[in-house]
Request: fold
Amino acid sequence: MRSVFYPRLINGPFGDPALYVHLAHRGQALLFDCGDLHALTGRELLKVRAVFISHGHIDHLVGFDTLLRTFLYRDLNLQLFGPAGIIDQLAGRLAGYTWNLTAGFSFVLTVREWRGERLEETVFRAQNGFAAEPQPGRDCDDGLLYETPFCSVRAVRLDHGDICSLAFTLEEPLHIAIHRDALERRGFRPGPWLARFKDLVLQQAPGETVVAVPLAAGGSAGVALAELAEEIASTERGMKVCYVTDAAPTAANLRKIVALATASHLLVIEAVFAHRDLPRARLRNHLTARLAGRLGRLAGATRLRIFHHSPRYLDRPQLLATEAQDAFSREPQDGP
Ligand SMILES: [Zn+2]
Ligand SMILES: [Zn+2]
Reply:
C-alpha cells in the first residue's frame, strides 16, 4: 500500500515523545504529543493542524510553547486534544505570558478535552489575550475525537498511575490507490487534482461530477467522477497508525491496547524498561519492551516502532529493540 501517513518520532527512542505525522499530498501534519519540538523546522510546525496530547506530564507537553511561538503571528487555527484537565493546564500556560500587543492577531487555539463521555471545548484567541472562552462541547462516548474526509483520530483512556493517558489511532477511511499505468494510457498528467479526485470519492460525490483533468499533451479535459473511479483507481482498507504511551502494565490496559491497535499497519508504542525490570515498570506505570512487542503481535500489527526508553539503557540501546522485536515476531503463546 502506498503510504498516506508519514510518521516520524522526531526525538528518537530516548528523547521526548512527539510523533509528527505528515499527511501525504495535503501539505498538513498531525502531532501526537508535544515533547521538545526543536527538531522540527518552522515550516514543518506550521503544517500541524491538530495536536493530540496523551497526558500532561512535562515530557509530553513541554513543546507547546514552541508551537505557540510559531503560530502566534499566523492567520491559522490550531486544534489541540487531550485528557481531562488539559484545558486548565493550557489556560495556565497561556496566562504565564503578557499579551497586551496581540489585539490585531488572528491566531486561534481550540482546546478539547476528552472526559470519556463528553468532549469539552474552550477557544483561546490571540486577539483577546488568550482569555478562555468555553464552548458548548459535545457528547463523545466512542472516543472519535477528530474526523476529516481523509483521516480520523480515535482515543482510548489508559491507566497511568492515578491519572489517565490517552492512546490514539489515526485511520484513513478508505485507501484509494491510483493506477499510474491507467493514467498514462488515458494521457492524464498526475498532479494535485488526484487529491481532489480522492476527496470527491471519499465524500461520495455524485458519479456525474465533472473533474478537470490536466492532459500530458497540454490543456485539460472534463471527466466524470464515476468514469475516473472505474478506470484509474481501486479502493482497499485504509491505513492505520496507532500511538500508545505511558500505560501501566495492567491487564485492563493491555486489553484496551490490543483492541485499539488491532490490524494497525504501524504500532508506535512505548518501551520504557526491559522486562527484567518489570517491578520498576509497574512502580512507574510504564510498559516494558517485551510487553510492547507482545501487544503488537496480539494486535496483528504489521510493523512495530518502540520509543520512550528510560535513560538507564542509554549504553545498551539494542537491548530494548531486540527484546521488543523478539516478542513481536514470536509465535503466539498464552497472552501478554
Ligand atoms: Zn512519559
Ligand atoms: Zn507520564
Notes: Residues 55, 57, 160, 246 surround zinc ion (ligand 2) (CB under 6 Å).
